[in-house]
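Researcher: Structure for this, please.
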Amino acid sequence: MIATRRYIILLLAFIISFSPSICAANAGKIFKENSGAVVIVNTYDKKNHPLAQGSGFVINSSGIVVTNHHVIDGAKNISVKLGDKVLKVENVINDDTQNDLAILKIEDGDYSAVKLGGINDIAIGDSLYVIGSPQGLTNTISDGILSGIREISPGKNVLQITAPISEGSSGGPVFNEKGMVVGIVTFHLIKAQDLNFALPSDLIDRSLASGQEMIPQNIVKPLSETVTETKSPAKTNEGSFFTITQSYASGGSNPNENAEYFFMAGNYYRKAGNIKKAIESYRKAVRLDLNHAKSHFALGKAYNYLGIYKEAVASFREAARIEPNNPETYYQLGTAYMNLAMYHESINAFKQATTVNPGFAQAISALGLAYLSVGDKDNALRQYNILKDIDRALAERLSGLIKSR
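Model: Predicted structure, token format:
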């Protein structure tokens, strides 16, 4: 018994003495693999005077960089320092004021990139590592643990971390033990020791980050910039006209700026080809009226267009909750699920569309394709038999797909 106790004590002493080495090894490995993808973000005013400095990280080899919104807020010019190179920011792909997130596009190149994880890739008590440039000290690594996941508003969580951060760390990546980015440093409470926070990396729009659907901009125009008295009439789906008189980013109190106003503004931007601005407008509409079904639906279609399918699903589900008898909503929801390879969910959505409107040919055809995706030829054939009396062209196309499987 005494020998057993001595063995346990010696074993514990060994583990305790050896643990720092393990942590140091993890930190060294993560730093070596990822420091080449961590950047310094510098911003300037219209006279090219420095405004702010923060951190960021590359998430795509073509040069997509993530940082905080507050790092670039108010900037007229932005540059990124990667190693010894200073690179120009060509576009602001996404500037999300609500989540303090910004996605930038730097000059084309072949860059090292981090691996993205999510909130499900870390648990409270796990070790984590932050690489950033606090006080301008390039590529500094610190370590700590995930001490909590805090809900700061309905459906919005932040990671509470103990890794030291300071001015200049904002926008830097937070890594788990596997070297995956699980968070983005966002703010800390100066008067409270070890109360540091990070955004979950799930917030990063992976479709926008792919660089395939960038919204071109000749100059950086942060959302905080005010646009006033712009006379831009556009016809909405309802056939009415509207005039954008004041940017909602300016915080004005125009009594006409209600959910319908921003829905119409979103339609204007969509028709003008500015999907980013359309999304901003639709988001504003649903914040003003959570039950504005048209805006939820339009937001879902905009997300689908950009390939942001998870957000599209959420928007279409909200639209369906508000207006449960709109077959088009279920059809679009099913399409978003299909793009996520969530075939059983898409089957349920397409079924709902055909229940509301039994003659909805596109939904019937899509339901057949969804059945084929899960290997259910019998049900796919049933959809063909229904479809052939409604839309012969779609029926023949579905038949060809059934035969090819």
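Researcher: Any notable elements?
Model: The mean pLDDT is 78. Residues 35-106 form a domain with the Thrombin, subunit H fold (CATH 2.40.10.10).
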